[in-house]
Amino acid sequence: MLMSISKEKIMDDRIARPLVLAALLAALSGVLAYMPSMAGAASTSCSEKQVAQAQRVMRNMASIGTASRRNGRVEFRFDAAYDEMTPLQRKLVTEWYASADACIHGFAREIHFYRNGKLVGKSDRDLNVEVHY
């Protein structure tokens, strides 16, 4: 299970950040083992267990950023933890968030991912994920 550490502590402690990020990625990958592959799916049908797992993904994602709804789409803004991720981890986290969101809502939504005001990735209504390195 993911450690409970405040965002301020993570940002101040350069040693703890990689450990927390590793714990987050491990937690997300464990949760997503139970979720169906939804790539290319405009609508989704998830079981109650899968929805519960998707909700856990969203709670875990809240430890590395914030989501809001603007201009008819979801916007997820990564915090400094994004800077510690490898390109593959960035792609996986983006895909996981989009899949979890689709599972919870029953359909894929357009999602834009930002870091420091810059668009770093997006997911469309068919769950096609694009990450900008």
Extended strand count: 5
Question: Which oligomeric form is depicted?
Answer: single chain
- In total, the number of domains comes to 1
Task: Label the structural class.
Answer: alpha+beta
Summed up, the helix count is: 4
Main beta sheet strand tally, sense and closure: 5 strands, mixed
Classify the beta-strand content into a percent band. Answer: 15-25%
- Which value, in Å, is the CA radius of gyration? 14 Å
Widest sheet: strand ordering: 1-2-3-4-5
N→C terminal distance: 29 Å
Overall 3D shape: globular
| DSSP helix fraction | 40-55%
The overall pLDDT average reads 79
Description:
The protein has helices at 7-12, 16-32, 48-61, 87-105; strands at residues 65-70, 73-78, 111-115, 118-123, 129-131. With 133 residues, it is of the alpha+beta class. The chain has one domain. Strands 1-2-3-4-5 form a 5-stranded mixed β-sheet, covered by helices on one side. The longest helix is centred in the last third of the chain and has 19 residues, at 87-105. The protein is globular. The model is unreliable at 1-7 and 9-16 (pLDDT under 50).
Topology:
Blueprint: H1 7-12, H2 16-32, H3 48-61, E1 65-70, E2 73-78, H4 87-105, E3 111-115, E4 118-123, E5 129-131
Parallel strand pairs: 2-3
Antiparallel strand pairs: 1-2, 3-4, 4-5
Summarize this structure as a short list of keywords or feature phrases:
single chain; 133 residues; alpha+beta; 5 strands; 42% helix; 20% strand; globular
Provide a compact summary of the structure.
The protein is of the alpha+beta class. It has one domain. It has helices spanning 7-12, 16-32, 48-61, 87-105, and strands at residues 65-70, 73-78, 111-115, 118-123, 129-131.
